[in-house]
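pasting for the record
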Amino acid sequence: MAQRVASHGVRRSPSITWASLLFFLTGIGWVAGILPMLVYIIRNRELPPMLGFRALEGPISQGLGIDAVIVSLYLLGVVSAAEVVVGYWLWKSRKRGGVAALAISPISLAFWIGYEVPPFILIVLVRAVLVWRGWRSLRG
């Protein structure tokens, strides 16, 4: 597969391109989606219904309660905003994007395990593998 040229002239590997897109899209999606969820949870003191089940139901809500879900969503908002920045840095083929991606992945993974959301668990793992595969194309 052909390599893409980042805006500063460095060749970006396809793995880094895909990792960048995944970080950016999941990050921006959650930044946008957290506020309505928080409003619902704070107003109703329960998890929002979604596709026939309660969203974010898992060890965090079941073991720690609704207040823990509220706090964890604020923290997830911060992590998601950081993922948007990571996606940008990876798009620019910056090594700090790779370092940040690998540093933030275990944190993201903990949230998705705590919420029991298998698709996002898989996305976190795929993003990390893509960064690892494209590591050599990253520059200072």
